[in-house]
Amino acid sequence: MQACTRFLNHAARAWPRSGLIRRLSTTAALREKDADKYYVTQPIFYVNSVPHIGHFYTVVLADVIKRYASMQGKSTKMSAGTDEHGLKIQQAAERANRDTLSFCTQYSNRFRDLQAAANADSPDFIRTTDPQHRLAVEHFWNLLVDRGYIYKGEHSGWYSVSDEAFYTELQVEERVDPATDKCGMFAIESGQPVEWVSEVNYKFKLSEFRDRLIEWIEGGQDVVYPEIRRNEVLSWLRAGIDDLSVSRPRSRLKWGIPVPGDDEHTIYVWVDALVNYATVDGYPWTDSKPSFFPPDVQVVGKDIVRFHAVYWPALLMAAGLALPKRILAHAHWTMGSQKMSKSKGNVADPFEDIERYGLDTLRYFMIRNGGISDDGDYATDEVLVRHRKDLAGQLANLAARCSSERLGVNIDGFAVLGRKLQSDIDSRDATLHDMLVELADKAKPLFDKGEFGRGLGLAFDVLAEANRHITENEPWTLVKSSDPEEQTRLQVVLFYSLEAVRLASLLLLPTIPEKANRLLDHIAVDKSERLWANAKFGAGWQTPGPKKLLPGVATLFPKLV
């Protein structure tokens, strides 16, 4: 730690505040990044406990967005990490009689493990205790001071230790705590207890950005999504916002980054934490432009939308930095329609459930059943139903039915047949044909919003129709005929079935990458043909060379108990 401190002090002295700050704020930070760069952020998770299924959902949703962007030819970056400063961590480490940094490291490692376990491993994993992050936060703070947006003053308000936030009189209520049966004051938004605090600290001129924030949200399509969260944020802003307390007395909060030039104060944990999205892209930038900043999508839970849709863009405006393009604030998970709680025993361990159900099955369930606007309910039975009915029953079963060797699929002729069927449509195929043609166009606007569950619902509607189509057209009967017309019809029926599998698998690629890729291998789709551009009718099996269906597709999704 001493070596780390010496490094930080040396680096801080190496960056004079004047000159460099002004140059950065008007050059590199405001330049447009390359159009092919796509940046997705996860919230950095607080290290006061182990990961739960809600964390897993956030990780997977961000990863699905990143993979979807990659399918569209984008060069992608996804940030992840842990938020390790603040009073909650300081107190938790004290209760555990642990050194604070080693306490943080223990839990941070579990969140890093979660990224790998979820197949969402990110090389851009940041800890707010990292030396480079401290340098970025100090630079950002000095920039706000340099631009006149931070001042020192007295602050009084209702403070929640759990939320690390002050609340106004309108944001708290008096009620009985069900855990203690005692009357107290609680934050309406989070339900956490608050206490009245008066202290001298540094404040950020948040109120000056009210109108600009409203204009930003109203002027951009789905800048804050879903609409229910957008309306919440706008209602907060229209009701008026006060300046934000952005430091805490070091006598009360030692575990954090000291205010530059004033060791009696610690930088507010949320200012510290939010800067991470710039740190992982190399902030503070020199004369070169940022590589991926600003974020294209910032995935957060609905409980932290205020920090990301009000505080964060206002801080960026003050610093002269580009704003995120979208804040996607998803809903939470319940169990038995009740909020998950360790005391109630209704929590789910993502590591255990990955082992129990298989990673891609769990990823699929979370994305298909998870809520963007409304909370999703986590139930073992529903995970099993999605596996049995959707993945095994609809997807793998259809692939197995039409790829049987005895049916004599002419996969090498599918490229030509697909082009022919663009216009030569038999009335018996019309319903399925239209659904296949429209699938990607209907799913894309949903995927673009982050509504992957709804988009995948369309894919499984197509698979249901394809299963009906193959049953009705009986290829196992057609194969027995020596009539050339019947043999031609056989190949058409098999093409429509495998085309449904191909398109559905492409739409599933961001969500179940391992299983979807294996399924595409089974049906002889070349790896070069697994982009979004290929997710249209007749755009498959174009790569020259012999193609062969692989056996064993029915075993991709084995029975779960």
From TrEMBL:
This is Probable methionine--tRNA ligase, mitochondrial. The keyword Protein biosynthesis applies. It catalyses: tRNA(Met) + L-methionine + ATP = L-methionyl-tRNA(Met) + AMP + diphosphate. GO terms for biological process: methionyl-tRNA aminoacylation. Residues 38-402 form the Methionyl/Leucyl tRNA synthetase domain. Its EC number is 6.1.1.10. It holds the Pfam family tRNA-synt_1g. The keyword Glycosyltransferase does not apply. Belongs to the class-I aminoacyl-tRNA synthetase family. It is an enzyme of class 6 (ligase). SUPFAM superfamilies: Anticodon-binding domain of a subclass of class I aminoacyl-tRNA synthetases, Nucleotidylyl transferase. GO terms for molecular function: ATP binding; methionine-tRNA ligase activity. The gene is MSM1. One of its GO terms (cellular component) is mitochondrion. Keywords: Aminoacyl-tRNA synthetase, ATP-binding, Ligase, Nucleotide-binding, Protein biosynthesis.
